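Q: What structure does this chain adopt?
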Amino acid sequence: MLVRVDGVAEALIEVGDVVRPGSCRAVDRLWRLGVRPVLATGDREAPARAVAALPVSRSSG
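A:
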């Protein structure tokens, strides 16, 4: 996000999501229980791909 003051760019703010350390283990447990996780996100492709690296059966962004 670009912050402008009187039409002049003053700052750039970046917000990002981080995959929590226990996420992979939790998703693996779901798989073993017969649950097939699906990632649904309104995010851009790059962040969605990072999360989709977890063992989910499908992802859509």
